[in-house]
Design brief:
- The chain has two domains: about 200 residues; about 120 residues, no CATH class.
- About 75% of the residues lie in helices and about 0% in strands.
- It contains eleven helices and two strands.
- Strands 1-2 form a two-stranded antiparallel sheet.
- The protein is elongated and about 100 Å long.
- Pfam families: DUF6545.
- Keywords: Membrane, Transmembrane, Transmembrane helix.
- This is DUF6545 domain-containing protein.
Length: about 350
Protein backbone atom coordinates (compact mmCIF):
# COMPACT_ATOMS: atom_id res chain seq x y z
CA UNK A 1 0.00 0.00 0.00
CA UNK A 2 2.88 2.34 0.79
CA UNK A 3 4.27 1.59 -2.68
CA UNK A 4 0.96 2.57 -4.29
CA UNK A 5 0.74 5.85 -2.37
CA UNK A 6 4.38 6.60 -3.24
CA UNK A 7 3.54 6.10 -6.90
CA UNK A 8 0.46 8.32 -6.58
CA UNK A 9 2.48 11.07 -4.88
CA UNK A 10 5.16 10.85 -7.56
CA UNK A 11 2.61 11.16 -10.37
CA UNK A 12 0.86 14.05 -8.61
CA UNK A 13 4.19 15.87 -8.38
CA UNK A 14 4.79 15.23 -12.10
CA UNK A 15 1.30 16.51 -12.96
CA UNK A 16 1.81 19.69 -10.93
CA UNK A 17 5.01 20.35 -12.86
CA UNK A 18 3.43 19.54 -16.23
CA UNK A 19 -0.39 19.35 -16.32
CA UNK A 20 -0.65 17.12 -19.41
CA UNK A 21 -3.43 14.67 -20.22
CA UNK A 22 -1.09 11.71 -19.70
CA UNK A 23 0.10 12.92 -16.31
CA UNK A 24 -3.48 13.61 -15.25
CA UNK A 25 -4.57 10.11 -16.26
CA UNK A 26 -1.60 8.69 -14.37
CA UNK A 27 -2.64 10.58 -11.23
CA UNK A 28 -6.25 9.38 -11.43
CA UNK A 29 -5.23 5.78 -12.08
CA UNK A 30 -2.68 5.49 -9.28
CA UNK A 31 -4.74 7.44 -6.74
CA UNK A 32 -7.82 5.31 -7.47
CA UNK A 33 -5.87 2.05 -7.04
CA UNK A 34 -4.25 3.32 -3.83
CA UNK A 35 -7.63 4.43 -2.44
CA UNK A 36 -9.23 1.10 -3.35
CA UNK A 37 -6.50 -0.88 -1.60
CA UNK A 38 -6.60 1.40 1.43
CA UNK A 39 -10.38 1.08 1.65
CA UNK A 40 -10.13 -2.70 1.36
CA UNK A 41 -7.61 -2.91 4.19
CA UNK A 42 -9.16 -0.38 6.56
CA UNK A 43 -12.91 -0.83 6.06
CA UNK A 44 -13.22 -4.55 6.71
CA UNK A 45 -15.50 -4.77 3.67
CA UNK A 46 -16.98 -8.11 2.81
CA UNK A 47 -15.55 -10.03 -0.11
CA UNK A 48 -16.71 -13.09 -1.91
CA UNK A 49 -19.87 -13.77 -3.92
CA UNK A 50 -21.81 -10.90 -2.33
CA UNK A 51 -21.50 -7.34 -3.60
CA UNK A 52 -22.37 -5.91 -0.20
CA UNK A 53 -19.52 -3.81 1.21
CA UNK A 54 -17.43 -3.86 -1.98
CA UNK A 55 -19.10 -1.13 -4.04
CA UNK A 56 -16.77 1.79 -3.23
CA UNK A 57 -13.65 -0.31 -3.77
CA UNK A 58 -14.95 -1.70 -7.06
CA UNK A 59 -16.04 1.69 -8.36
CA UNK A 60 -12.55 3.01 -7.68
CA UNK A 61 -11.10 0.09 -9.65
CA UNK A 62 -13.38 0.87 -12.59
CA UNK A 63 -12.14 4.47 -12.53
CA UNK A 64 -8.54 3.22 -12.32
CA UNK A 65 -9.06 0.88 -15.29
CA UNK A 66 -10.60 3.69 -17.34
CA UNK A 67 -7.75 6.08 -16.49
CA UNK A 68 -5.17 3.41 -17.38
CA UNK A 69 -6.79 2.88 -20.78
CA UNK A 70 -6.77 6.61 -21.48
CA UNK A 71 -3.18 7.17 -20.38
CA UNK A 72 -1.93 4.30 -22.55
CA UNK A 73 -3.87 5.68 -25.51
CA UNK A 74 -2.23 9.08 -24.91
CA UNK A 75 1.37 7.85 -24.93
CA UNK A 76 1.83 8.26 -28.68
CA UNK A 77 -0.05 11.49 -29.36
CA UNK A 78 -0.32 13.17 -25.95
CA UNK A 79 -4.13 12.96 -25.94
CA UNK A 80 -6.52 10.29 -27.31
CA UNK A 81 -9.08 11.12 -29.95
CA UNK A 82 -12.34 12.56 -28.50
CA UNK A 83 -14.27 9.57 -29.87
CA UNK A 84 -11.95 7.11 -28.08
CA UNK A 85 -12.32 9.04 -24.83
CA UNK A 86 -16.11 9.24 -25.12
CA UNK A 87 -16.49 5.52 -25.91
CA UNK A 88 -14.48 4.41 -22.91
CA UNK A 89 -16.01 6.91 -20.52
CA UNK A 90 -19.53 5.91 -21.62
CA UNK A 91 -18.74 2.20 -21.17
CA UNK A 92 -17.36 2.78 -17.69
CA UNK A 93 -20.40 4.93 -16.79
CA UNK A 94 -22.80 2.17 -17.87
CA UNK A 95 -20.89 -0.40 -15.81
CA UNK A 96 -20.93 1.89 -12.77
CA UNK A 97 -24.67 2.44 -13.20
CA UNK A 98 -25.32 -1.32 -13.38
CA UNK A 99 -23.19 -1.90 -10.30
CA UNK A 100 -24.94 0.83 -8.31
CA UNK A 101 -28.40 -0.39 -9.36
CA UNK A 102 -27.80 -4.01 -8.43
CA UNK A 103 -26.09 -2.98 -5.21
CA UNK A 104 -29.17 -1.18 -3.85
CA UNK A 105 -31.40 -4.15 -4.61
CA UNK A 106 -31.97 -6.86 -2.04
CA UNK A 107 -28.94 -9.14 -1.84
CA UNK A 108 -30.55 -11.68 -4.13
CA UNK A 109 -28.45 -14.13 -6.06
CA UNK A 110 -29.44 -12.69 -9.46
CA UNK A 111 -28.46 -9.15 -8.46
CA UNK A 112 -25.13 -10.35 -7.09
CA UNK A 113 -24.37 -12.29 -10.25
CA UNK A 114 -25.19 -9.31 -12.48
CA UNK A 115 -23.06 -7.04 -10.31
CA UNK A 116 -20.07 -9.37 -10.40
CA UNK A 117 -20.33 -10.11 -14.11
CA UNK A 118 -20.62 -6.41 -14.93
CA UNK A 119 -17.68 -5.41 -12.76
CA UNK A 120 -15.25 -8.22 -13.46
CA UNK A 121 -16.28 -8.48 -17.11
CA UNK A 122 -15.52 -4.78 -17.61
CA UNK A 123 -12.27 -5.06 -15.66
CA UNK A 124 -11.16 -8.03 -17.75
CA UNK A 125 -11.88 -6.24 -21.04
CA UNK A 126 -10.10 -3.08 -19.84
CA UNK A 127 -7.07 -5.07 -18.70
CA UNK A 128 -6.87 -6.99 -21.98
CA UNK A 129 -6.96 -3.74 -23.96
CA UNK A 130 -4.35 -2.19 -21.67
CA UNK A 131 -2.12 -5.23 -22.10
CA UNK A 132 -2.46 -5.02 -25.90
CA UNK A 133 -1.51 -1.32 -25.83
CA UNK A 134 1.48 -2.02 -23.60
CA UNK A 135 2.76 -4.73 -25.98
CA UNK A 136 2.29 -2.43 -28.97
CA UNK A 137 3.92 0.64 -27.44
CA UNK A 138 6.80 -1.17 -25.71
CA UNK A 139 8.32 -1.73 -29.15
CA UNK A 140 8.12 1.96 -30.00
CA UNK A 141 10.21 3.49 -27.18
CA UNK A 142 13.99 3.40 -26.91
CA UNK A 143 14.14 4.96 -23.45
CA UNK A 144 14.98 2.27 -20.86
CA UNK A 145 12.84 3.94 -18.19
CA UNK A 146 9.79 4.06 -20.46
CA UNK A 147 10.30 0.45 -21.52
CA UNK A 148 10.51 -0.67 -17.89
CA UNK A 149 7.44 1.43 -17.13
CA UNK A 150 5.40 -0.31 -19.81
CA UNK A 151 6.80 -3.76 -19.00
CA UNK A 152 5.81 -3.58 -15.34
CA UNK A 153 2.40 -2.05 -16.06
CA UNK A 154 1.79 -4.82 -18.61
CA UNK A 155 2.85 -7.43 -16.09
CA UNK A 156 0.49 -5.86 -13.52
CA UNK A 157 -2.37 -5.94 -16.02
CA UNK A 158 -1.69 -9.60 -16.85
CA UNK A 159 -1.74 -10.58 -13.17
CA UNK A 160 -4.85 -8.41 -12.71
CA UNK A 161 -6.59 -10.58 -15.28
CA UNK A 162 -6.04 -13.54 -12.96
CA UNK A 163 -7.80 -11.58 -10.22
CA UNK A 164 -10.88 -10.88 -12.38
CA UNK A 165 -11.00 -14.45 -13.70
CA UNK A 166 -10.75 -15.84 -10.18
CA UNK A 167 -13.65 -13.71 -8.96
CA UNK A 168 -15.87 -14.82 -11.85
CA UNK A 169 -14.86 -18.42 -11.19
CA UNK A 170 -15.58 -17.88 -7.49
CA UNK A 171 -19.18 -16.91 -8.23
CA UNK A 172 -19.64 -19.85 -10.62
CA UNK A 173 -18.23 -22.43 -8.20
CA UNK A 174 -20.08 -20.91 -5.26
CA UNK A 175 -23.41 -21.19 -7.09
CA UNK A 176 -22.90 -24.65 -8.57
CA UNK A 177 -20.33 -26.73 -6.71
CA UNK A 178 -18.82 -25.61 -3.40
CA UNK A 179 -20.10 -22.75 -1.23
CA UNK A 180 -17.51 -20.01 -0.68
CA UNK A 181 -14.46 -21.69 -2.25
CA UNK A 182 -11.72 -20.19 -0.08
CA UNK A 183 -8.77 -21.28 -2.23
CA UNK A 184 -10.08 -19.44 -5.28
CA UNK A 185 -10.76 -16.31 -3.25
CA UNK A 186 -7.26 -16.37 -1.71
CA UNK A 187 -5.61 -16.83 -5.11
CA UNK A 188 -7.57 -13.89 -6.50
CA UNK A 189 -6.63 -11.66 -3.57
CA UNK A 190 -2.95 -12.53 -4.04
CA UNK A 191 -3.21 -11.75 -7.75
CA UNK A 192 -4.78 -8.37 -6.98
CA UNK A 193 -1.96 -7.50 -4.59
CA UNK A 194 0.80 -8.60 -6.98
CA UNK A 195 -0.83 -6.92 -9.98
CA UNK A 196 -1.31 -3.58 -8.22
CA UNK A 197 2.29 -3.72 -6.94
CA UNK A 198 3.51 -4.32 -10.48
CA UNK A 199 1.59 -1.30 -11.74
CA UNK A 200 2.99 0.83 -8.91
CA UNK A 201 6.53 -0.29 -9.68
CA UNK A 202 5.92 0.46 -13.35
CA UNK A 203 4.86 3.99 -12.50
CA UNK A 204 7.99 4.52 -10.41
CA UNK A 205 10.27 2.80 -12.93
CA UNK A 206 11.15 5.72 -15.26
CA UNK A 207 12.49 7.88 -12.46
CA UNK A 208 14.30 4.96 -10.81
CA UNK A 209 15.90 3.75 -14.05
CA UNK A 210 17.02 7.26 -14.99
CA UNK A 211 18.47 7.77 -11.52
CA UNK A 212 20.48 4.55 -11.85
CA UNK A 213 21.66 5.62 -15.31
CA UNK A 214 22.76 9.04 -14.02
CA UNK A 215 24.58 7.44 -11.08
CA UNK A 216 26.34 4.95 -13.32
CA UNK A 217 27.33 7.68 -15.80
CA UNK A 218 28.79 9.87 -13.04
CA UNK A 219 30.70 6.99 -11.40
CA UNK A 220 32.06 5.74 -14.73
CA UNK A 221 33.19 9.23 -15.74
CA UNK A 222 34.88 9.71 -12.36
CA UNK A 223 36.78 6.44 -12.78
CA UNK A 224 38.00 7.60 -16.20
CA UNK A 225 39.59 10.64 -14.54
CA UNK A 226 41.12 8.74 -11.62
CA UNK A 227 44.72 8.03 -12.83
CA UNK A 228 45.34 11.60 -13.98
CA UNK A 229 43.49 13.07 -10.99
CA UNK A 230 45.46 11.00 -8.47
CA UNK A 231 48.81 12.13 -9.86
CA UNK A 232 47.73 15.78 -10.03
CA UNK A 233 46.36 15.59 -6.48
CA UNK A 234 49.64 14.06 -5.29
CA UNK A 235 51.62 16.88 -6.90
CA UNK A 236 49.22 19.64 -5.80
CA UNK A 237 47.35 18.47 -2.67
CA UNK A 238 45.71 21.86 -2.15
CA UNK A 239 43.57 21.51 -5.29
CA UNK A 240 41.45 18.74 -3.74
CA UNK A 241 38.43 19.01 -1.50
CA UNK A 242 36.87 16.17 0.44
CA UNK A 243 33.75 14.73 -1.19
CA UNK A 244 31.24 12.23 0.13
CA UNK A 245 31.12 8.64 -1.10
CA UNK A 246 29.00 8.35 -4.27
CA UNK A 247 26.16 6.51 -2.56
CA UNK A 248 23.46 8.67 -4.19
CA UNK A 249 23.00 10.27 -7.59
CA UNK A 250 23.58 13.74 -6.14
CA UNK A 251 26.79 12.72 -4.37
CA UNK A 252 28.11 10.85 -7.40
CA UNK A 253 27.53 13.84 -9.67
CA UNK A 254 29.06 16.28 -7.17
CA UNK A 255 32.17 14.09 -6.90
CA UNK A 256 32.45 13.86 -10.69
CA UNK A 257 32.14 17.62 -11.26
CA UNK A 258 34.54 18.27 -8.39
CA UNK A 259 37.10 15.94 -10.00
CA UNK A 260 36.74 17.73 -13.33
CA UNK A 261 37.47 21.08 -11.68
CA UNK A 262 40.42 19.66 -9.77
CA UNK A 263 41.92 18.11 -12.91
CA UNK A 264 41.50 21.41 -14.76
CA UNK A 265 43.15 23.31 -11.89
CA UNK A 266 45.97 20.80 -11.71
CA UNK A 267 46.62 21.11 -15.45
CA UNK A 268 46.78 24.88 -15.01
CA UNK A 269 49.63 24.40 -12.50
CA UNK A 270 51.53 21.42 -13.93
CA UNK A 271 54.61 22.30 -16.01
CA UNK A 272 55.37 19.99 -18.92
CA UNK A 273 58.88 19.45 -20.31
CA UNK A 274 59.52 18.19 -23.84
CA UNK A 275 58.69 16.64 -26.08
CA UNK A 276 55.99 19.22 -26.76
CA UNK A 277 53.02 17.60 -28.57
CA UNK A 278 52.33 18.50 -32.18
CA UNK A 279 49.10 20.16 -33.30
CA UNK A 280 47.80 16.99 -34.99
CA UNK A 281 48.38 14.88 -31.88
CA UNK A 282 47.81 17.44 -29.15
CA UNK A 283 45.82 15.40 -26.61
CA UNK A 284 47.67 12.07 -26.78
CA UNK A 285 50.99 13.92 -27.08
CA UNK A 286 50.20 15.98 -24.00
CA UNK A 287 49.26 12.80 -22.11
CA UNK A 288 52.65 11.26 -22.88
CA UNK A 289 54.46 14.48 -22.02
CA UNK A 290 52.58 14.70 -18.70
CA UNK A 291 53.50 11.13 -17.85
CA UNK A 292 57.18 11.60 -18.66
CA UNK A 293 57.51 14.83 -16.66
CA UNK A 294 55.16 14.14 -13.77
CA UNK A 295 57.95 14.12 -11.19
CA UNK A 296 58.79 17.72 -12.14
CA UNK A 297 55.32 19.20 -12.60
CA UNK A 298 55.94 21.55 -9.68
CA UNK A 299 59.16 23.02 -11.03
CA UNK A 300 58.73 26.38 -12.80
CA UNK A 301 60.17 25.17 -16.09
CA UNK A 302 58.58 24.21 -19.33
CA UNK A 303 55.02 24.96 -20.47
CA UNK A 304 51.84 24.79 -18.41
CA UNK A 305 49.79 21.74 -19.43
CA UNK A 306 46.60 23.76 -19.76
CA UNK A 307 48.24 25.92 -22.44
CA UNK A 308 48.86 22.82 -24.55
CA UNK A 309 45.23 21.74 -24.60
CA UNK A 310 43.36 22.67 -27.80
CA UNK A 311 41.16 25.76 -27.54
CA UNK A 312 37.55 24.80 -26.80
CA UNK A 313 34.45 26.80 -27.76
CA UNK A 314 32.29 25.37 -24.96
CA UNK A 315 32.36 23.71 -21.55
CA UNK A 316 31.17 20.45 -23.12
CA UNK A 317 34.14 20.44 -25.51
CA UNK A 318 36.54 21.18 -22.67
CA UNK A 319 35.08 18.26 -20.71
CA UNK A 320 35.48 16.02 -23.75
CA UNK A 321 39.15 16.95 -24.12
CA UNK A 322 39.84 16.36 -20.43
CA UNK A 323 38.26 12.91 -20.67
CA UNK A 324 40.29 12.12 -23.79
CA UNK A 325 43.44 13.32 -22.03
CA UNK A 326 42.67 11.14 -18.98
CA UNK A 327 42.05 8.11 -21.20
CA UNK A 328 45.34 8.62 -23.05
CA UNK A 329 47.18 9.21 -19.79
CA UNK A 330 45.86 5.91 -18.45
CA UNK A 331 46.85 4.10 -21.66
CA UNK A 332 50.33 5.62 -21.67
CA UNK A 333 50.76 4.68 -18.01
CA UNK A 334 49.80 1.08 -18.71
CA UNK A 335 52.57 0.84 -21.32
CA UNK A 336 55.28 2.01 -18.95
CA UNK A 337 56.42 1.19 -15.43
CA UNK A 338 54.80 3.90 -13.31
CA UNK A 339 56.69 5.72 -10.65
CA UNK A 340 55.28 5.84 -7.15
CA UNK A 341 52.68 8.57 -7.13
CA UNK A 342 49.10 9.11 -6.18
CA UNK A 343 46.77 10.53 -3.59
CA UNK A 344 44.00 8.63 -1.88
CA UNK A 345 40.60 9.14 -3.51
Amino acid sequence: MALLWSAAAFRLHAWRKSATFTNGAFVVSTAAIALACTWKVTSGAASGPSAQGDLFEHMLLVVAALATQLLLLSLRTGRPQPRAIAARVLTAAVVLAVMATTYVLDPATAADVIYRVAFHGYLSVALVESLQLVIRYSRSFDDAGRKMNLLLIGWGCAVGLIYSASRLLYVLVDLTLVPEPTAIHTAGSAAALIGSSGIALGILAPRSVRAVQRWRTAVTATHRLDPLWRDLAHAFPDITLSTSSPTTVHRAEIRYHRRLLEVAEGLARAHVHGPIPTESDAVSGLARALLVSRTTWQTPRGVLASELLPATPSTAEERRFIHALADDYRTAGNRTTPTTSGAAA
